[in-house]
Write a structure and sequence with these properties.
By secondary structure, this protein is of the alpha/beta class. The chain has helices spanning 25-38, 40-47, 76-81, 98-108, 121-132, 154-160, 174-185, 191-196, 201-207, 213-227, 232-236, 271-280; strands at residues 19-21, 52-56, 63-66, 71-74, 90-95, 114-118, 139-144, 166-172, 250-254, 260-267. Helix content is 39%, strand content 18%. The strands form 2 sheets. It has a 7-stranded mixed sheet. It binds S-adenosylmethionine.
Length: 292
């Protein structure tokens, strides 16, 4: 079922490529949509004036199929487009695979306000920022959802963070980091150095006990987010999973064997953004109150 670069070997019901995903991906979308819904009043004053922008750095083809269930679902970027209450006025989608970009364009089927580009987001972000920096009063929400740390350089977040009104929902790909950590430990200038934006992690990991490694990595990421202007107060005030996430407004997304695959991190410079995220992650997708 799984084909090239995460796309299924068979197309979706509309004949276009779809991404093959596990059921845990629905949790990721649950938290994304909850945030977009809960933040609609704050967004409305921008949206009403044409000033709300959505950025999807790793957009995919627009649809996913849940492996084993044959259930077809919308991608995160499609869900953002379909928000009717305080909608985004301009939506920027990037993907490195041409077939994904083509499919997304066909599925979106709406001309105004949608900008879809093929290429490496870490490069495309430069041109995007030149454009966005011309209108500093706008609100921006970036959905940052790479498969692995290989897709995302911290420097890219640093560029986005030049905008003051930039909320970022980041998928911290802990599963892919787990699989490769030992290899990266023994080398320098690795994918993980670029993803975290520092090589400080090697020393921290050596000093951590085995059970604390991911907590230490997330702590480093937190320091890095603070260094690009996301306020420490907001990050500190957040709830966290005491196993792997400390001090960051994160929510762990688990796969069916209950192994963490992703950690979602919300970075917002505005206390209201943090407050909204903290209130929605108190409940998991089945409505259970989380124990932290
Ligand atoms: C986890 S999938 C995205 C899923 C999508 N956000 C969704 O909601 O269904 C990651 C996507 O990033 C794309 N990708 C990988 N490296 C990239 C890069 N450097 N720049 C842009 N896109 C990249 C892949 O082709 C793939 O479609």
């Amino acid at each position: 079922m799984q084909g090239w670069r995460g796309n299924c070997s068979i197309p979706g019901s509309d004949g276009l490529p779809v991404q093959c995903v596990g059921p845990w991906v629905e949790d990721k979308f649950f938290f994304l949509e909850r945030y977009l819904i809960a933040s609609r009043e704050a967004r409305r004053k921008f949206s009403d004036n044409g000033n709300a922008a959505f950025i999807d750095l790793f957009a995919g083809p627009g649809k996913c199929i849940i492996k084993g269930e044959k259930k077809e679902i919308d991608s995160g970027g499609m869900r953002a487009l379909k928000r009717e209450d305080a909608p985004f006025n301009n939506l920027y989608y990037f993907d490195i695979v041409q077939a994904n970009v083509d499919s997304l364009g066909k599925r979106m089927n709406r001309k105004s306000g949608i900008h879809i580009h093929c290429g490496d987001s870490n490069i495309l972000v430069e041109e995007l920022m030149q454009k966005l920096m011309q209108d500093l009063y706008r609100y921006h929400f970036a959905f940052i959802d790479p498969f692995s740390p290989q897709g995302l350089k911290f420097d890219t977040l640093k560029k986005l963070a030049k905008l003051n009104k930039m909320d970022m929902l980041i998928n911290f790909p802990i599963g892919a980091i787990k699989r490769n950590l030992q290899t990266w430990m023994d080398r320098s200038d690795t994918i993980l150095d670029d993803f975290l934006g520092t090589n400080e992690w090697r020393r921290e990991i050596k000093e951590s006990t085995k059970g604390n490694i991911f907590r230490a990595l997330i702590e480093i990421y937190k320091k890095q987010l603070i260094s690009i202007g996301y306020p420490e107060e907001g990050l500190r005030a957040a709830s966290s999973d005491d196993k792997i996430c400390s001090g960051l407004p994160t929510v762990p997304i688990r796969n069916t064997k209950d192994v963490d695959l992703y950690v979602l991190i919300l970075a917002s410079k505005h206390p209201l953004g943090q407050k909204i995220w903290n209130s929605i992650i108190k409940y998991d997708p089945v409505g259970q109150k989380r124990l932290f």
